[in-house]
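hi! just following up on the protien thing from before. the input was this:
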Amino acid sequence: MSIKTIGIVGAGFGGLSAARVFDAMGYDVTVYEKEAEVGGVWSASRRYPGLTTQNPRTTYALSDFPMPSDYPEWPSGEQVQAYMHAYAVHFGFLERIHLNTEVTDARFEEQDMRWAVTVRSTKPAGGEQSTTAYFDYLIIANGIFSVPMIPDYPGTKDFEAQGGQILHTSQFNDRAAARSKHVLVVGYGKSSCDVANAIADSTASTTVVARTLIWKLPKRLANVLNFKHLFLTRLSEALFRYIRLRGFERFLHGIGNPLRRAMLGSMEWVIERQLHLRRLDLHPNKPLESIARSTVSLVTDGFYEKIESGEIGIRKNVEISRLEPGKAILDSGETLPADMVICGTGWRQVCPFLDKAVMQKVTDEKGNFRLYRSILPIGVPRLAFNGYNSSFFSQLNCEIAALWLADYLEGGIELPSLEVQNDYADRKLAWMEARTDGKHSKGTNIIPFSIHHIDELLDDMNMNLAVSTRIKQWLSALDPGDYAHLLPALQRKYARQNTPTVEFGHEKRV
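and the predicted 3d structure came back as:
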């Protein structure tokens, strides 16, 4: 049975790149997005004050559509959303995106080998009426940042009853809402520091409550060298131990280990002094190499200066143990005034529209996603995920994954047996668990191995970059434009410029 119609859930980078690739390959594509605009985490309803990219503009773009040259080096959230909208317009698939449309149910009909996708309007006046459409293939691109995770603090009910507010950073969209209030910002990641920095000059007090301190990377090391030249290259990835070592990596993690440690140590020394971490008593007291265990966070401009001046307070190695009207009690016993608590406490990766039986195949008993190549759920027909690969180059990983999936559907990639796929998932999750101390976003966080993941996908496709390009990427920041030739090459391979679709890819099974 041929695959002709593709349903896509979500219009962030995962959904847009999939729509672009499959539309260009001649498939009939439909995208459902519950928000009022494309953009995913960059849409207006989810943007917090002070939101910017972690990557410089030249590295945070899709391969064949550079960001506008008049954008700043680190674009704002609003600019990224505008860029994503322009991408859909430029490539002519905006009309295939159904905005304000939430997928409430997706069921696979085995007899007809198709997905029945039920949606409803999210417009205030949209009513509860549901409609169902049918697709030969379903791509879930709702993102790993799909549902905000807010701690269930004891005393929340009384705190809110007396006018207190508790919300996630993604739900804090109006800077004025914090004016003249005592605000606690929970967390030490980028979103928490961005929010604290953005509101500190207008609140009665702003205090960051950090359970754990992590290393933060300056945008310019020693205020000179752009961090992309050190952390967005093949060399930077090679400094951290991947699940499988190849080439020069074997040297760096073998007899060249002293050199590798010296390189990381020198960067650690510079960052420590540049940010005055010892003086501020904010040193993480763990090696810089630990950034590979959880998340990589860029320094928010002005954040440490405001801590030093007292404009932002910080309590480290503590948590909120309970809330009372107008105050929060920390597990250290300290009481802080609190009218608003803003939580940068992560996300839950969920697909509420999939039934329990499907989710049991997609995830393990701990809720970890078991995806072959971070794309295909094992043993579930005609279903794929895109964007379940959080990384520095998440947008490019989404695009390459969409190309990989298109090549698979066209018959260009033959999957290994289910036994081999399951072994792959087991080994990958065990490695993630050990490497990150369990902080791997349910198996979806591939930081800092973005380029490694892209290489694996392109190797499967027999379409990896020329050796000269890969050598260039060892010492200079990855340029998404290096991958712009891949979609045209895939179109030529299958003569699919404007030709309708194709037979389903071959698959070995046990």
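The mean pLDDT is 92.
The chain is about 30% helix and 20% strand.
cheers
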